[in-house]
Records
---
Amino acid sequence: MYEDTYCEDITCFMGGVEKRNPGEAEFIAAVREVAESVFPYIEEHPQYRKARILERMTEPDRIISFRVTWEDDEGNIRVNRGFRVQFNNSIGPYKGGLRFHPTVNLSILKFLGFEQTFKNSLTGLPMGGAKGGSNFNPKGKSDREIMRFCQAYMTELQHYIGENTDVPAGDIGVGAREISYLFGQYKRLRNEWTGTITGKGLSYGGSLIRKEATGYGCVYFTKLMLEERQDSLAGKRVAISGSGNVAIYAAKKALELGATVVTMSDSSGFIYDESGINEEKLETVIQLKEVERARISKYVESYPEATFHEGQRPWSVKADVAMPCATQNELNLSEAKALVANGVLAVAEGANMPTDADAVEYFLEHKILFAPAKAANAGGVAVSGLEQSQNSLRVSWSREEVDDRLKAIMADIHTNCVKYGKEDADGSFVNYLKGANIAGFIKVADSMLAYGAV
Ligand code: NDP
């Protein structure tokens, strides 16, 4: 029986994970990726193996699943499933986003909650890992329907969250509007004003720089990776995918730091602007995507020197830096090969799990600087943590103050990745994936060891 075996090797360990989580492909893949980095480290530190820390870490503290009943505009009763996966609260109250999307299932939320545990640990802030959401599809719903759904969802979720227990935030399908409805309902039901949800509006407890944090943080991290190699971001050609929140602010910060952004995309295709998407052109992208809710292809109407590539992703262009900032599984092995053939130096994941496992392996084999999502996009949750601190202290920090703290957090994450990710006899190559996994693991594992068998 796997359950009763002290696994000496990764095959035995993964056999147990697969047996306990049948059919949960995303979760199993996420565990495998971490286990591959962490297993050799555990072998050198038997106290973790003896206490079965990795087995405990791959089992969520608890999974909450509930019915969400709401009424649509025609008066029909609708039923969805709501979830919250409280993965690990060893180092702080649970923290992680809520996703409203028809594809939401337990495997995806367990994968995201597991990853969040490591990401939050890397930030150095006292935050445990969680994720939640519903298979509710917000697309095509009226504003009133969204409100009723959020209120129904929160009516059940409120039993399990709180500022010292679990602090949800947004994710796909849960933006400023949904956060406001969720927070409003929580406040009403509990008759208390606490920072139990982050991503709030500025007038009711939100933090400056939260919107920009993920994209900015990803660029700060990329800059540090290049500097570690005595190189710099200034003058580099950067290919970015996506044109949503993460992509826009990654582009903005890359421009500010002297890089040339040559691509952006959406689900219809990508634009290539060889002369660079400058500040003014980026404003056009923001206008198109955030205000007009139009397609990125319209960019070439304003800038005919650029080209639009329908149904394609931007990884075929010549770039020094690639930043996948759109969605999961958007960079495969053949695209990784094209990027390497074109001389890419660094790849930083702004999105969650955008790079396929075999593409990651290819980058590492070719000694490309590869920043995994749990390190590169941790700036978002870090500023959410800072929002919690401001709420508890009843203060609002200035833009500069939050930005400085964000920079310091990204620098600490980078230092820790270098510390545990150095490879080659002379330590000249940093495997950031390995570094992030081990650094994230240690803090959670040591806390679990200290607590004893709980
Ligand atoms: P948005 O919804 O703001 O933007 C998503 C972007 O990706 C849009 O440009 C969208 O295009 C594009 N996109 C969506 N699906 C596809 C697809 N199948 N193929 C190509 N492009 C696609 O999301 P965010 O920018 O907030 O998030 C992006 C990623 O970053 C997600 O993986 C998210 O989990 C992750 N992330 C976000 C954080 C944050 O703070 N926002 C924090 C940490 C991680 P279209 O307009 O056509 O839909």
---
Amino acid sequence: MVLAKRPPMGWNSWNTFGTDISESLICRMADILASEGYLEAGYDTLVVDDGWQSAARTADGHLSADPVKFPRGMKAVADYVHGRGLKFGIYSAAGVETCAGYPGSFGHEFTDARDFAAWGVDYLKYDLCHFPGSGNIQSAYLTMSMALKCSGRDIVYSGATCGEGDAKLWMRSVGAHLYRTTGDIQDSFATVKRHAVFSLDDLGLSAPGCFADPDMLVVGMRGKGYAADGGCTAEEYLTHFGIWCMYSVPLMIGADLRTIDADCKKILLNKNLIAIDQDEECRPPYFEKRSRYSDKEKLILLKILEGNRFAIGFFNLTDNDGALHAYFSDMGLPVYSGRGFRLKDLVTGEDVGVHRDFFSVRLNRHACKIYLATVE
Ligand code: GLA
């Protein structure tokens, strides 16, 4: 079976809860994912991030669940999550310890992969902290890949090296399904922008089977939780979500689904934007670096979709309201082609007609417009 034909979608515990997680919390999130439209929209994987483990391995060398947070063990949690029609993800790290200081998988890869498979794990986020200086990162990621392959279960393998070690160049070759392009996201527009801009140059090798990962979504956190950093407005969250969708990268929700507000939930469930993210061809967007009219602050992206359709995104990442101008000669459609783009707003549904040569849009600071385009 080919895993990760499309960028994974789901929910991850880290951004809001850090290591403050428990069986009841995870089961509650599973209930909400399954019953409140998220699973239906494609968010099918629930990932328990760092902090599920006991402080030390068992006497016979296994990882085990923290007995207070997860008294029935991780298999019981996986069973519950599966019972809600979801896939179950877990976290470990390639070093001797995880980033939060729990036992890592270094030297224990085959034992851990076997245990994960026995518990019913479908997705492993594999981080990079406390890695021995004498070790070889690529080889450690390959070893876990082989361990997963020998585990007897199909497990999506997220290579979360925080952008270290030029992971984009080798993650696909070691069998991973994601390569992390950045450090940790936080719930502020400044970080979202930094991750978006930084990842732009790392998208070229992102394709079915192994995708770039600019980190989880902060949409809906509203300044609360572990990765809190002042929060964003709904308009800023839409820009964040829209960029991730234009990039065709994983959509892992990080907000507390019990308290998320209606505006943010609407963004996360926007079927048109999700369809752009999950487009069959999963192409990264084209960005004309030499354009006089667009740059990494006034970001204009063309994404070629399956079936001769296109998405065109305008993102005003500057701190001032202003106009963004797209010259279609920067999108392969010069005026002498005699062709233009028909544009349909993917958020409002409005058909804004056929435009030739250029199109301008006024945007508030940090706002965006994303259109589905067809050539006429
Ligand atoms: C790193 C990762 C985060 C999270 C934490 C857990 O910082 O980048 O996404 O998994 O570790 O400790």
---
Amino acid sequence: MGATGPKQVLREPGEATRRVRFGNVEVGGDFVVIAGPCALENQEQVDQAAHAVKSGGGHALRGGAFKPRTSPYTFQGMGEPGLKLLTEAGRRLRMPVVSEIMDAAQLPTLVEYVDVLQVGARNMQNFSLLRALSKIDRPVLLKRGFGATIDEWILAAEYLLDGGNDQVVLCERGIRSFDNTLRNTLDLAGMAYVKQKVKLPILVDPSHSTGLSWLVTPMALAAAAAGADGLLVEVHPTPETALCDGPQALTPQAFDAMMKGVGAVLAATGRRFADVKPLAAVGGVR
Ligand code: PEP
Ligand code: MN
């Protein structure tokens, strides 16, 4: 790519994966699972989802308050009241929390509530948003755009490092291909390629990449086998009533089963789930 190519995100020979810490969790070493509902809906749903994630062995809690929906007539997210529920559930269960930022104007609100700011597929090349996030001291979870090449994705991460934020975690969430049978096409080989070439930790999202809950566990196991640093996965206490992405959400029981399977794959490949560090050692969760 020459002079305009990435300068900071590439892995030097022998260089270890960058560790990115949030709360009592560290990504880039042992395997980390971030799970929770697509959208935060109400107190009961958030609490039940958080409980399911914690009891299944998840490390961090996800949930969208500002949802980038294809149609303006579908649920757009709870906004700030949802973030409050997410943060409270995370604090209670000692899990850091992750939520999506759609616009730089939401930054002051989001930093008040969340440990990690997620940039969604639709905003991967929102360069003014990336510039704004490069100026803050908070980890960013950068999802791959569904129409983005690997080079474009890597250069989007480069914007964050160039501006001064090196706390970046990548996430492969599937791309659009000629085949629309599934919601997206999971580019696992692309994930393994990026893992090799880029020093940032990388997660796989088996939920948005398939769109179907029964494909989530097999793709989660494949991601673990292929060397991902962790997963971002949707869990809902009652997927059939979900306001967003119900067909791809795991029930609490299915999440437990997925975690058992992932644990077996990790053991078979000489890896393990990350420990949750004692809060005293990391200065507490915000
Ligand atoms: C999400 O994680 O809820 C989401 C909207 O994902 P993506 O940006 O990958 O579509
Ligand atoms: Mn979703």
---
Amino acid sequence: MEKVILIKYGELSTKKGNRNYFIHTLYKNIQNKLRDYDVKIHQDRARMYIEFLEKDLDSIISIINCIFGIHTYHIATIVDTDDKKIQSTLLDVVSKEKFSTFKIETKRSDKSFPIHSQEYNSVLGGLLLKNIPHISVDVHQPDLWIKVEIREKESFIYYKTFQGCGGYPVGTQSRAMLMLSGGIDSPVAGYLAMKRGIVLDAIYFEALPHTSMEARNKVIQLSKKLSRYSDSIHLHIVNFTPIQEAIYKNCREDYCITIMRRMMIRIAERIAKSHGALAIVNGESIGQVASQTITSMAVINQVTNMPIIRPVACFDKLEIMDIARRIDTYNISIIPFEDCCTVFVPRHPVINPKLETAIEEENTFDFEPMIEEASQSFTTIVVTDEDANEFFDLL
Ligand code: ATP
Ligand code: MG
């Protein structure tokens, strides 16, 4: 029996004007992610379906589960549109299931099929009742809700619904620059941004030798995990050491974090612009630490006109951790290698910084050439989802 993966668009179908563009982007994304498999992808306005080789089902499902824009999907059995064949296939498929109540819902998109939907429900229902013992019909809460879609040449039979990861297809929004540290929050922020269709580049500020190559490796592995949701991620690694050292040498200790963040945003903005990214994304969450009060955010934000998107701004830490576990970044994030913020944490960072003081303090050294240098000379690694599960072998 031949099976297909039947994909429903869900939220996409409400995007009237952009509908075709959304569907086309989803199609391209699926095609790209399944490029190594022997599949045929068909699309129409209401659904997409994928023909595949049985042996690849599990791997294909794990890929499908990371493609945004897929709301729900079904594994459907495909059968020639012929009454006898539909009946025997239905009986075959359903006999393998354990259930006591069922409902049949026929949809006839091919109106030339001679039996009307209602009538066909009774025909197929009668067939099951006659051949499978101890079952009955329940139209309200059936154990098995069997859908039969009659189409012109081939029809679908299915009864299990799987949840896809929802959202919009990556690429339906512009590019943005994710500030990716090795922590728990920023990978989750990146995931949520991609879920809205944003294409991500990532930027990591590194302060060797105060931070280690292991910390960098962590960020690479986090990018790998994130790239399962998109094509590939360009990870830009910026040498932040001279700026970080200058800040700690010249500025008031309690303002160091505020100023460090202002420098990071300035660099992120420049690299974003040179890479066609229109926004910055970060993992700040309101109230989580001193640098994440609204006052701090306002002072930090003041260095750029670029939108800064903070997908986890209003989430509790526990909610963020839940998502991190779900997307498999949590176990990497909690490995204890210091990033550049944790190395230089002041004893009492200012909670409500003043803009004038921040400006005064950062002007104690000539930061502009340093910012320019950092924005020009950085390393870019193209990270793909190949070997996304390999991290722990490296340690
Ligand atoms: P995370 O868990 O993402 O590290 P956090 O709670 O530790 O976040 P902070 O260290 O205050 O928060 O950083 C706030 C945000 O600033 C991070 O979520 C990230 O987006 C960005 N950021 C911090 N440090 C770096 C870094 N070294 N490189 C890139 N971005 C960074
Ligand atoms: Mg951090």
